[in-house]
């Protein structure tokens, strides 16, 4: 359903398609027939417990690691057979971006400018301005903080105007302010320039704030592809929501609600005076009315959302820490 | 072709921008000046070389040939391993350039480096020798100086190529410098130990020093010719470079 609506929003072909990619080392499948697609302007998170194959997947997509089977297409060009053509559309930060510490920030960017045709001095200036490093360009990179290096990493990745950014654990080692800054950059890039972003991470809360979709893998296999946030809620109106009612007398509320159809009581918590029910959106005003008519005081109505963490543990069986 | 030139520029800048870049050149200058000074100070008047003879002598294996080779090994050992240890290899390889081209650019920059070391040594020797002893030709002419420079370059080139390959294979700068230097040092030992066997003719070490084919030299094994040595060296070079390129192309960068 969501796949379908995405196709309608973007009439063009997927920016990235991973097709049955497998990495086998010594008869063990590190990544096993993994397939997913990404479209223009999407931020997709690649999630999985430690050792699930996230890093291997990312590195196969950018050609650092060879694939045993399958292929990756970037804008229709194969990483396997037309590496230079495919990778020209990709900007990447693999783990913490590493630069030549004895060179200045500008010298480092010049290195990458020389490796791709057609990057002007003006483009370098624009990118540097975008990440806010104008005043640090003449400093040697060894004097940079991690946050500054991360920003130089983004500048480096954007230099050749890629269609897709691929980031492996981009927030590793950043402080909360740095993480937030990174998130804002990525969202802006995706919204304003229509660049797709693929991020691997195990920071679930971070992914929840940033991504429009997550691809969950475990032991190298695809577990699920889920839409998050807005695109997850625009489903059919018949969908039921879980709501917690805080009342003065949970027992009485329960007794009243039990008499109503279309409501299933999930949990009654005496000590918190809460009743948690599953109900249709449209039915909630009637529930409120019924409780009021019964003389039950109502203090709070809260929707209970499953956090990405809960869902993640459900998907991956919860037997491992992400 | 234009883009390949830019890749070489990149590699050259990676060496050049290091603060330690000029140390080898300074070391060469100091050694040459010191040797020339000692000769002038303590040599007898009739045993005094000309400037050309001095330069030619500096370029023999026992003169500065080995020192130049050591410096070249140290300078080039990090070419590939440093990218791994700094972690910059990841950003280097996700550009729209093939891995072979990137490695070729590295190798070319290494060649430029040994050429610059040798030319600097030659220039400085001629300058010092000319100032102290005069530049008139005796039995030894400019041609001989040029030949000894060429022989020394070939000697460095072989060892630098081995070093380059070890760098690709081990990804460790320290190990690469160590192995490269040890190879240079055990060269005469191996030739000496194996000289009884016929196979020694085909060993790299027996063929690296082409100066034996210059006037007045004797080949280590009777019957060896310049053409033979050049062919053996060419085969080894193809082997070393082939191994380097295949390994570098296939490698999973984790």
UniProtKB/TrEMBL annotation, chain A:
InterPro entries per the UniProt record, alphabetical: AAA+_ATPase, ABC_transporter-like_ATP-bd, ABC_transporter-like_CS, P-loop_NTPase
Q: Where are the transmembrane segments?
A: none
- Report if keyword Cell membrane is assigned: no
Keywords (alphabetical) are: ATP-binding, Nucleotide-binding, Transport
The record, for SMART domains, names: AAA (SM00382)
ABC transporter domain boundaries? 16-244
Spell out the Pfam families in the cross-references: ABC_tran
A GO molecular function assigned to this protein is: ATP hydrolysis activity
Q: Which family does it belong to?
A: Belongs to the ABC transporter superfamily.
Question: Know the name of this protein?
Answer: ABC-2 type transport system ATP-binding protein
Organism of provenance: Fontibacillus phaseoli
TrEMBL record, chain B:
Presence of the UniProt keyword Plastid in the record: no
| Pfam families registered for this protein in UniProt | ABC2_membrane_4
Mark the transmembrane ranges.
Answer: 21-43, 63-81, 102-133, 145-169, 176-195, 226-248
Superkingdom of source: Bacteria
Key words of the record: Membrane, Transmembrane, Transmembrane helix
* Transmembrane helix is among the record's keywords: yes
What is the protein's given name? ABC-2 type transport system permease protein
């Amino acid at each position: 359903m969501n796949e379908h609506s995405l196709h309608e929003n973007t009439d063009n072909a997927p920016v990235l398609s991973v097709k049955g990619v497998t990495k086998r080392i010594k008869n063990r499948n590190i990544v096993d027939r993994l397939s997913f697609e990404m479209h223009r302007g999407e931020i997709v998170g690649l999630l999985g417990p430690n050792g699930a194959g996230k890093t291997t997947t990312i590195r196969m997509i950018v050609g650092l690691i060879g694939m045993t089977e399958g292929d990756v297409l970037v804008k229709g060009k194969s990483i396997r057979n037309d590496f230079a053509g495919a990778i020209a559309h990709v900007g990447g930060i693999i783990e913490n971006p590493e630069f030549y510490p004895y060179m200045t920030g500008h010298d480092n960017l010049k290195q990458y400018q020389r490796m791709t045709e057609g990057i002007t001095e003006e483009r370098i200036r624009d990118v540097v301005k975008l990440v806010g490093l104008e005043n640090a360009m003449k400093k040697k990179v060894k004097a940079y903080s991690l946050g500054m290096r991360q920003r130089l990493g983004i500048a480096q990745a954007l230099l050749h105007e890629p269609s897709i950014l691929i980031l492996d654990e981009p927030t590793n080692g950043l402080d909360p302010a740095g993480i937030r800054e990174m998130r804002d950059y990525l969202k802006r890039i995706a919204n304003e320039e229509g660049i797709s972003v693929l991020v691997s991470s195990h920071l679930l809360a971070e992914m929840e704030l940033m991504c429009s979709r997550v691809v969950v893998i475990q032991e190298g296999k695809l577990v699920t592809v889920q839409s998050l946030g807005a695109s997850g809620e625009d489903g059919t109106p018949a969908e039921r929501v879980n709501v917690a009612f805080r009342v003065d007398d949970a027992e009485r509320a329960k007794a009243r609600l039990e008499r109503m159809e279309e409501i299933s009581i999930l949990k009654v918590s005496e000590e918190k005076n809460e009743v948690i029910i599953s109900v249709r959106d449209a039915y909630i005003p009637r529930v409120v009315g019924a409780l009021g008519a019964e003389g039950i005081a109502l203090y709070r109505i809260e929707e209970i959302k499953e956090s990405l963490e809960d869902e993640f543990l459900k998907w991956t069986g919860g037997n491992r820490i992400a | 072709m234009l883009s390949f030139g830019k890749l070489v520029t990149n590699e050259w800048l990676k060496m050049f921008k290091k603060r330690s870049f000029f140390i080898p050149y300074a070391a060469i200058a100091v050694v040459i000046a010191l040797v020339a000074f000692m000769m002038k100070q303590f040599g007898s008047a009739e045993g005094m070389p000309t400037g050309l003879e001095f330069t030619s002598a500096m370029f023999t294996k026992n003169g500065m040939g080995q020192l130049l080779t050591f410096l070249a090994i140290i300078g080039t050992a990090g070419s590939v391993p440093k990218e791994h240890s700094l972690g910059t290899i990841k950003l280097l390889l996700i550009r729209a350039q093939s891995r072979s081209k990137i490695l070729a650019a590295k190798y070319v920059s290494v060649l430029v480096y040994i050429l610059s070391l040798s030319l600097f040594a030659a220039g400085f020797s001629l300058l010092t020798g000319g100032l102290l002893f005069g530049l008139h030709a005796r039995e030894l002419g400019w041609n001989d100086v040029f030949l000894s420079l060429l022989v020394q370059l070939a000697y460095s080139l072989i060892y630098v190529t081995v070093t380059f390959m070890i760098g690709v294979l081990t990804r460790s700068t320290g190990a690469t410098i160590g192995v490269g230097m040890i190879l240079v040092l055990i060269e005469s030992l191996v030739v000496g130990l194996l000289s009884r066997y016929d196979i020694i003719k085909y060993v790299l070490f027996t063929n690296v020093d082409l100066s034996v084919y210059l006037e007045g030299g004797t080949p280590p094994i009777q019957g060896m010719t310049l053409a033979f040595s050049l062919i053996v060296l060419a085969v080894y070079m193809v082997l070393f470079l082939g191994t380097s390129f295949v390994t570098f192309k296939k490698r999973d960068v984790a």
